[in-house]
């Protein structure tokens, strides 16, 4: 059991919180909207605590369960507080108006931008962006454990994330250096586009990408 | 039953040929190496025929089961012969030396480059690049039909490809316009990288990407 901090109190924060509590980690939820944060902490139950922006970051692993722009702001704001910690970027910086492009600079990724804004000693890892909240909270799809694709430049950080992923009943897959986040995010441009497409009535944010067998 | 032409006589040509013959299409294999082409035609059995570069293209659907650079050459060479036909680009223009970049110009894709080199009346579609030859030949993974992701600017062409995909026992998924090939190819930079990685002993070109459930 170790301490996990989650920035955010929305669907993805809830989903990752549920998984981490199931894995018997203690979970600190940090969100700006105090009421929403308290509601999530209550729902998560024993092992969960909450706080606002002034709170001391307790987790050795910090999940950024917030949109891309917010993620870069959070790591900027917390500065050296995140040094030595594993910082997990989960964002999909897709243009949500068109599902036809990214909000990141060409030749980069949300995760790399987060790393640029973070303390140089923060261990930034990309993970969980290919998991939709509902399937992540359920922890499985079609009776099989979700795949969690992990990219990062620190082997130690990826091993820590892989350990909590496995402990929460999911399958960690190390896909290489942090720049592989470009492909992880590009994938989701396509797969998120399918969820909103009127041509695909069967895809409703309840799918998951699996490597089979 | 309709006529399919396949350029190439390697693993992917064999896999797509097996699927098309199973779907009761007749298959024309066009390859430069006559002996290899004849061998594949023999293996495919009834319904298959072969030819060299001088052969008349018989298929209304033409699969480019050749590497990226070869695909652009083939569509250039055949010029207006391909006008009005559905041309299926299957390539993964990955840098195979590093698995860390693409061989295509930035902001493009193999499929879009093929379209640039082809007759403006050829109906270029991206499909099958996410299927490895062995799983494609088997037609299933873990007891489930393979997903075939299809991108293209012609709805009519995508419907024709979807029909032959479904007839061959696989699940067609229309992912949008031809430029979605960028994401389909980017995905494979990552997923092909896993197959060759010494850290992933379990991934040996026998996996498949599925959207579950």
Give the biggest beta sheet of chain A.
8 strands, mixed
How much helix is in the residues of chain A? 25-40%
What amount of the residues of chain A lies in strands? 15-25%
Give the largest chain-chain interface (CB within 8 Å). Answer: A-B, 35 and 35 residues
- Compute the number of helices of chain A: 7
The SS-based structural class of chain A is alpha/beta
Looking at this structure, what is the CATH superfamily of chain A? NAD(P)-binding Rossmann-like Domain
Oligomer: homodimer
The top-level CATH class of chain A is Alpha Beta
Number of domains of chain A: 1
End-to-end Cα distance of chain A, whole Å, is: 30 Å
Which shape of chain A, going by the Cα principal axes? globular
Instruction: Give the strand line-up of the largest sheet of chain A.
Output: 3-2-1-4-5-6-9-10
What's the count of strands of chain A?
A: 11
CATH topology of chain A: Rossmann fold
Gyration radius of chain A (Cα, Å) is 16 Å
Rounded average pLDDT of chain A:
96
**Which residues of chain A sit in consecutive blocks of at least 5 with pLDDT less than 50?**
none
Strand and helix order of chain A: EHEHEEHEHEHEEEHEHE
């Amino acid at each position: 059991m170790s301490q996990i901090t989650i920035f955010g109190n929305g669907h993805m924060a809830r989903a990752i919180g549920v998984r981490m509590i199931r894995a018997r980690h203690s979970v600190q939820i940090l969100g700006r909207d105090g009421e929403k944060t308290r509601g999530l902490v209550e729902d998560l139950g024993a092992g969960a605590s909450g706080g606002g922006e002034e709170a001391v970051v307790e987790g050795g692993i910090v999940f950024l369960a917030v949109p891309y722009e917010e993620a870069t702001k959070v790591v900027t704001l917390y500065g050296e507080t995140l040094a030595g910690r594993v910082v997990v970027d989960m964002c999909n910086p897709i243009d949500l108006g068109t599902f036809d492009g990214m909000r990141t600079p060409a030749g980069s990724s949300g995760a790399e931008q987060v790393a640029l804004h973070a303390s140089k000693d923060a261990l930034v890892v990309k993970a969980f962006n290919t998991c939709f909240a509902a399937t992540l909270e359920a922890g499985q799809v079609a009776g099989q454990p979700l795949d969690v694709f992990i990219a990062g430049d620190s082997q130690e950080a990826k091993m820590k994330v892989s350990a909590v992923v496995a402990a929460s009943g999911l399958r960690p897959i190390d896909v290489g250096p942090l720049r592989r986040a470009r492909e992880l995010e590009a994938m989701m441009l396509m797969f998120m586009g399918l969820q909103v497409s009127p041509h695909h009535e069967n895809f409703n944010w309840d799918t998951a990408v699996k490597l089979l067998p």
